[in-house]
From TrEMBL:
<protein>
    <submittedName>
        <fullName>Uncharacterized protein</fullName>
    </submittedName>
</protein>
<dbReference type="Pfam" id="PF14072">
    <property type="entry name" value="DndB"/>
</dbReference>
<dbReference type="InterPro" id="IPR017642">
    <property type="entry name" value="DNA_S_mod_DndB"/>
</dbReference>
Amino acid sequence: MNTTATDPEYVDQVDLTRGRPVRIQQVTSQRYLAIMPWGQLFGIVPDPRQAEVPRALQYLSTAQREQAELRNEIQRTIQGTKKKANAKDYARYIAAGLRGDRGERWATPPFALWLPGDMDIVRFKSPFGDDLLAYMPFDATGILVDAETQHLAHILLQEDPGAYGLVKPQVTTRLVSVEIYHRIGLRDARQIFHDRNLLGVIPNKNVALAADSSNLATDITFGLLEQVVIPESAAGRDVPLERLVSTRPRQLKATDPEWMTLSSLRAFVVTALFGRPGFDKTSGPLSELPAGCTMEVAQSAIAEAAALLFRTFAKHFDERADTVIAAPAMLAALGAVVHRSMPWAGEPRRSIDQLLALLSDISWERDPKLWDGSVGKATTSARTGAPMLSLAGGIKDSGSKTAAALEDPASPRYRQVRGYLGAVGQ
């Protein structure tokens, strides 16, 4: 007996002849929440890739063909798009979680399932109120209006679990959360897809980095915030570095009291780890350390160097609106210079004292005559017509040139940034 969603009948036992039972919780008259093994969801939502192969549609059942056509009305294509690559990355992420590599530091969002057909919903009495059970028809098919990439990732894991260090039951029996949308039409389903996929606000880089505790460079960076102590002129006392690093905005305003953003400090950490090759690693996740380096050694060595560097040049960081020392490209370049003093760096290494001596005669003023062509670009003020220095260049554009100016005597800018004007071209 099919009953209305708002008035299910009471029963006292499960009848497996009525369909596949799923325990559900009602949110609205059209929306329910359920927990089920992913393998059961796969029985309802087939591989979305087959919906994009016209020749394959002729071999599907009528229900499967209708499902594929509806799916193509709602979802984005997979072939030839970034979605395909994202599914592979997602599969690796889920596999790491299932293997236990990430501990409890992983999660996946609920699947949003639209069932164009009907569910047979019944009600059970329990000590805590009524429980709802839905019998899904054995041939029921549905469309995912959200989390299809996650679904495809599970399919990839199921197809070749050994390649991900898993066995098939780990994938098929994994319990997943499912939002079931029921008794709505195609137009409503398409709108839900739009809202769930296009209205979300992507966090800025600084917020994303602050949230990613599984990233090795981010772990080291957070360690610096607690370990490194800096004299702050405004406070008149020593303060932890975390007081001087902004973990929220992506960019600082001239009036902000902080010295740098979290992403800029993290760039310093990455280049301290890898040297100049680290410029290309500053914007992505970091899952491996350099050869011969451990987390304990990296944390200690970088903290020692950072403390000496930030304390020695604290005055210039305090005046960051008038200097170049806190520019993201400069911090990354300083990290690359610091790398030569790290215990895992190749020879020849320089001592910390030699590092400070190398940087001691640099002119940090934001002067285009000093820094044009390295950390910045000479330009003209639109308001006054006076020459000025733009620091708009990114780490990958300006980092290597800036590092050369700081530490390479063969660079024409080595003398320029130390105040020997006219050095370029000589």
